[in-house]
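ok trying again, last paste got cut off:
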Amino acid sequence: MPLPQSAREEMSARQVAAAEGAGRDRLRAMLWTGLACVGWAALGLACLMWAAHTTDLQLGWIAVWLGLALGNGGILFTLLWAYARGERRGDW
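nice, full thing came through this time. structure:
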C-alpha cells in the first residue's frame, strides 16, 4: 500500500532539513579547522621570528626547531583530526 501524499511530503521535508543541518555542520567544522591551521602557523612563525631576534645561538636553534615542529606538526595534526571527524560524520 503506498504512503499518503502528506506522509511523503513530511518525510521529504525532514530529509531536506537533515541535509541542511549536515551542510552547516560541515561548514562549521571546515571553518574551525582553517582557523586552527592559521593559529598553528602563526605560533610557528612567532617562534621563528623569536629565533631570528635572539642573540644566543643555541637558544636560537632551539626556537627554530620548535617553530618548525609547532607550525608543521600542529597543522598536520589538525588536518588529520578534521579528516577523522569528517569520516565519523559521513562527510566523505
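cool. Residues 5-53 form the longest helix (49 residues). The two ends are 36 Å apart (CA to CA).
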